[in-house]
Amino acid sequence: MLSISSIITDINEIPREWVFEHYLKLDVRLTGQDVKIKSLFNPIDKNPSMYIFFSSNNTYRYKDFSTGKTGDALDLVKEMFKLGTRGETAHKIIQDYSAFIKNNKGTYDIQEFKKRNKFKVTDFTTRAWTNLDERFWTKFFIGSKILDFFNVVPLNDYTLQKEEDGTTRELIIKGNNLYGYFRKDGALYKIYNPYSKENKFIKVKDYIQGSDQLTMSVPYLIICSSLKDVMAFTKLGYKNAEAVAPDSENIIIPEHVITAYKMKYKNICTLFDNDKAGKESMLKYKSKYDLNSVTLDLSKDLSDSLRDFKLHKTKEVLTPLLKQALQ
Q: Which of 58, 245, 259, 297 has the most other CB atoms within 10 Å of its CB?
């Protein structure tokens, strides 16, 4: 265990784990583990949706799935206190840390870090479709043809494993409505558990959802928030447009991919959820790629709009919005 004592003048001298512990008032010390808390930026968050995680570059970062906010320690404090620049943020952190050191007799114990392995999907078993599956998907007007086209397969269970202290921990997850999202080559890239509050999506591999199904022979491309919305869009039957979705609404499709799409399509727009996170994602695509967006003010997302307002009404509202965004 190390101690830090002295006058701090450089933000790089301040342990990033202290920043998260102090400003988020965590009741645990960060020693390499991941921590999940209720969203700091969403006061109506009922289930913990904000993750503080030890990233691949050996520093702590955060991701708030409730609002789409993400970043490092400085981004967190900058967002919390609505500061203008990272320099201003660094100055505040230095002041607060110096006060903390003074009040704690000049020391901050740095805990020994231990790399923590994470659970990974190592196996799964498929099953036949059931009436429960039919009831779930058809309320969104998504039937067997579309599910087959996008390689959605019902799962009986999946296995999670991780190595910890020389032993292998294994969890087998079962459920009546588990679905595997597969690529055309048979590779599993995501597991969807719609009735799970904490693990609705399990990412297995990076993949732009719906990309295997693109023909690139129509003039327009719509970027949706999820594969379910891509399937809902397909059900609407537009002959001049097709759709894809990133791994999640909070992940930006890489620039080289967008550049390639712009060479193949006459125009592209985004169609994300109409909540705060979705609107912030639309702004990011507009700022980074100059893509117009569509805000469908029916239900939270496109698939829910089909469920709540049916096909005709949803298409009636959506069509002029698409025309405006794609003109």
A: 245
